[in-house]
Specification:
Strand order of the largest sheet: 1-2-4-3-5-6-7-8
CATH class: Alpha Beta
Number of strands: 8
Distance between the termini: 25 Å
Structural class: alpha/beta
Largest sheet: 8 strands, mixed
Strand content: 15-25%
Order of helices and strands: EEEHEHEHEHHHEHEHH
Number of helices: 9
């Protein structure tokens, strides 16, 4: 992704295109490259923004999904946006949910893909085996239906993260906070339009999680992508973009 990172007001972010702001929120092990095709597609019709979330830079005791949501609040306030469209993958979806719960008037629409917030099976109960690169490769491969997407670049990025003690402490803090902040009671009160795009073969946030989101959120639409795991926008970017674009159009959100 050859986009320049901007720095303003203490925030670092990518911003491409013009129009209504569409904020993309990556997951715990996510990278900017995860959204390459989404940025390329939607920057033709939106101002697409990816804030650099402070996953690894906050004090450990303050590291959690709620703190990240407060960072998002501060960022939106700094940019003086009255309303935004949010798109979150995995932990990023959880952050979007907390922000939408606390600031519903600011959220024009919410798109969740493989979001945590109800249930997530990440590294399971085991601590990441930091020295074992093949273990990390297998864990990265589980993210996808087709392990070909577990590139050396992704494996190296993940391996680097879990071999940094300070980052590992924050990963564990974020994972524990995600479990504590279950959103089931909040979802029925969130009435903004919600688009759920899910891989049928997701083993981290399985299909029943998507069905629970759909059942609990009163204004949601659920779309499935076959032969797809935990990162639909990476495994099937064209289909993902088509689903979201059509949903925007159907709900008058273009």
């Amino acid at each position: 992704m050859n986009y320049s990172i901007r720095e303003e007001g203490g925030f670092r972010f990518i911003e491409e295109g013009e129009g209504r702001p569409l904020i993309l929120l990556h997951g715990l092990f996510g990278a900017l490259s995860n959204f390459r095709e989404v940025v390329g597609h939607f920057s033709q019709s939106h101002k697409v923004v990816i804030p650099m979330l402070p996953l690894y830079s906050m004090p450990v005791l303050n590291t959690g999904v709620k703190s990240i949501a407060h960072f998002l609040r501060d960022f939106v306030h700094y940019k003086r946006w009255e309303q935004v469209d949010l798109l979150g993958n995995s932990l990023g979806g959880h952050v979007a949910l907390i922000y939408a719960r606390e600031h519903p008037e600011r959220v024009r629409s919410l798109t969740l893909t493989a979001s945590s917030g109800l249930y997530e099976n990440a590294f399971g109960s085991s601590f990441p085996r930091r020295e074992d690169k093949e273990f990390i490769r297998r864990k990265v491969a589980v993210t996808f239906y087709d392990p070909v997407h577990a590139t050396d670049e992704l494996v190296d990025e993940c391996f680097q993260v879990v071999n940094d003690r300070n980052r590992v402490l924050r990963i564990l803090a974020l994972a524990k906070s995600a479990i504590r902040h279950n959103m089931a009671r909040d979802l029925p009160h969130m009435t903004m339009p919600v688009c759920l795009i899910w891989g049928r073969n997701d083993t981290i946030t399985p299909p029943e999680v998507a069905e629970d989101f759909h059942r609990l959120m009163p204004n949601s639409s659920l779309y499935w992508i076959d032969k797809c795991g935990h990162a639909p926008m990476m495994e099937h970017p064209d289909l993902f973009n088509s689903i979201l674009e059509n949903w925007f159009r159907e709900h008058g959100l273009k």
